[in-house]
Amino acid sequence: MSLEGSLVISSLIDAQIMVYAQVAMLALLTYDYILSLGQEVAYIWASNWGSVKVLYFFSRYSPFIDTILAIEEKLNHRVDSASCNRTMTFNTVFTSLGIGISDLILIVRTYAMYQRSRTVLIILLVLWVAVLAVGVVAASRWSTSDTVAFSESITLSGGSSCFLIGENKAGVVSYISLLLAETVLVMFTVWNGFRESQSYPQHGFFGATQSVLITFYRDAITLGNVLVTAYAPLIIHVREVANLPDDQTRDLSALFFGTNNSSSETPEV
């Protein structure tokens, strides 16, 4: 198999793994939704309508929209490059908006934890505006960059789908700024928890956070088991393909490139 053919096969396998990952993320999102639905019904549905409640519902349900669209983009075998770019642009903007609103909710929560301190609110809002500006610029450059484009490709299972043919590093800048901002929010939360624990000396800091730790480890272990069960067969299959003799790999790659169109020729790799 030629070097170019190996790179094509590797790219297609990576694209197929992305589909599996997106489906897994949708399953985990649904799992998280079911876990917290009872608390949502008890504390949110019966509350009075306001700006925070609207932001909450958008943040709560909008991830289902862009995640389902991302999966449909990969599984739709009648998609063209223009549709790929439209869907990716929408998902980029919509996801960025959802993240911004989620962080705004965290800011409101932190503001309430600090007894509506105006100093804390100003610090967090300035931080949020700065991250929002960086995110908007990065998303704009990413969506309009010539190095990022999608084309129709032949999938491993046949048919065509969206295939990324370029990349751009602008998203890394947005991710780093978001990571720093959320680290600041976590530090505010931890400090407030430590401060509040002084009011309950009989429990102390670790006693006050015991229920949080129990919930964290319970959910983390459950999600870990789900991920291992979902990805183990895929990893084993990829390793089996990598260890096949060259002649069998050639036949397998030809099978991967097969399409639903009986008149098309199978490309030689």
Q: How is the main sheet built?
A: 2 strands, antiparallel
String of helices and strands = HHHHEEHHHH
Radius of gyration equals: 23 Å
Tally the beta strands.
Answer: 2
Keywords: Membrane, Transmembrane, Transmembrane helix
InterPro entries: DUF6533
Protein name: DUF6533 domain-containing protein
List the helices and strands and how they pair.
Blueprint (H helix, E strand, L loop, with lengths): L2 H43 L5 H25 L5 H33 L4 H27 L5 E5 L5 E5 L5 H28 L6 H5 L1 H33 L3 H11 L13
Antiparallel strand pairs: 1-2
Description:
The protein has 269 residues and is mainly α. It has a domain of 183 residues. 76% of the residues lie in helices and 4% in strands. The protein is built from eight helices and two strands; from the N terminus they run ααααββαααα. Strands 1-2 form a two-stranded antiparallel sheet. A hairpin with a 5-residue loop joins strand 1 and strand 2. Helix 1 runs antiparallel to helix 2. The longest helix is centred in the N-terminal third of the chain and has 43 residues.
